[in-house]
């Protein structure tokens, strides 16, 4: 084989790889658009009137996740299953964002922490890498940490809306979440940096609760009505 033939073959491989990446990018763009739509729906709960419509916002969010499942189903067909990590960087960010959105929906519905298995059910993908397109543990944890930041914002806006018991419930939840993360030996640098941000979320929520306490507005969950 001549040098020219050899490099022609290499160019063919590069072109094929670029075609795959372009197909992936097109699907990911659709995922990103749907993720923005879900985020827009859910972030409306931060408005004073939004607290009354949380169930309907969550329902709308779950409806939009049907589109997400369709996009992810399409994405699976764009590359060989065994090459997941070769192309992972293309969808890693949007998958983390979708994990956050799924976690936020579940929290708003039940004030509980979504499991990795629940996220994969919402997204229509796998838990185990052996089964194909899946949700990495790191991507799941990143989504959970993003939710924590969103909840710190929700705690502040709850006070503005006159919901004084919600920040206490959020505080209890975030403290439990922080305790859970302390059990992990995080060696993933980006994830470790995200976890460092959780400390600030905890502090921010504690300040909200403290302010409510000194104003006599704090009520433990189940202790009675709000003032």
Automatic annotation (TrEMBL):
This is Translin. It is found in: Cytoplasm; Nucleus. Keywords: Cytoplasm, DNA-binding, Endonuclease, Hydrolase, Magnesium, Metal-binding, Nuclease, Nucleus, RNA-binding. GO terms for cellular component: cytoplasm; nucleus. GO terms for biological process: RNA metabolic process. Mg(2+) binds at residue 150. Ring-shaped heterooctamer of six TSN and two TSNAX subunits, DNA/RNA binding occurs inside the ring. DNA-binding protein that specifically recognizes consensus sequences at the breakpoint junctions in chromosomal translocations, mostly involving immunoglobulin (Ig)/T-cell receptor gene segments. Seems to recognize single-stranded DNA ends generated by staggered breaks occurring at recombination hot spots. It comes from Acipenser oxyrinchus oxyrinchus. The keyword Metal-binding applies. Belongs to the translin family. GO terms for molecular function: endonuclease activity; hydrolase activity; metal ion binding; RNA binding; sequence-specific DNA binding; single-stranded DNA binding. The lineage of its organism: Eukaryota, Metazoa, Chordata, Craniata, Vertebrata. InterPro entries: Translin, Translin_C, Translin_fam, Translin_N, Translin_sf.
């Amino acid at each position: 084989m001549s040098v020219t033939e050899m490099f022609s073959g290499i160019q063919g491989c590069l072109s094929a790889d670029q075609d795959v990446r372009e197909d992936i990018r097109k699907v990911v763009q659709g995922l990103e658009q749907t993720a923005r739509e879900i985020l827009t729906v859910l972030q409306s709960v931060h408005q004073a009137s939004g607290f009354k419509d949380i169930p309907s916002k969550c329902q709308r969010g779950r409806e939009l996740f049907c589109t997400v499942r369709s996009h992810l189903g399409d994405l699976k067909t764009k590359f060989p299953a065994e090459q997941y990590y070769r192309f992972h960087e293309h969808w890693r960010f949007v998958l983390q964002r979708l994990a956050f959105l799924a976690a936020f929906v579940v929290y708003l519905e039940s004030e509980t922490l979504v499991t990795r298995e629940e996220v994969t059910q919402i997204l229509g993908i796998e838990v185990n890498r052996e089964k194909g397109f899946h949700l990495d543990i790191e991507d799941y944890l990143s989504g959970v940490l993003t939710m924590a930041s969103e909840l710190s914002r929700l705690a502040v806006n709850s006070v503005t809306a006159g919901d004084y018991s919600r920040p206490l419930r959020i505080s209890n939840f975030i403290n439990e979440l922080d305790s859970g993360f302390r059990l992990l030996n995080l060696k993933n640098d980006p994830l470790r940096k995200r976890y460092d941000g959780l400390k600030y979320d905890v502090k921010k929520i504690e300040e909200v609760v403290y302010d409510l306490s000194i104003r006599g507005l704090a009520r433990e969950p189940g202790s009675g009505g709000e003032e």
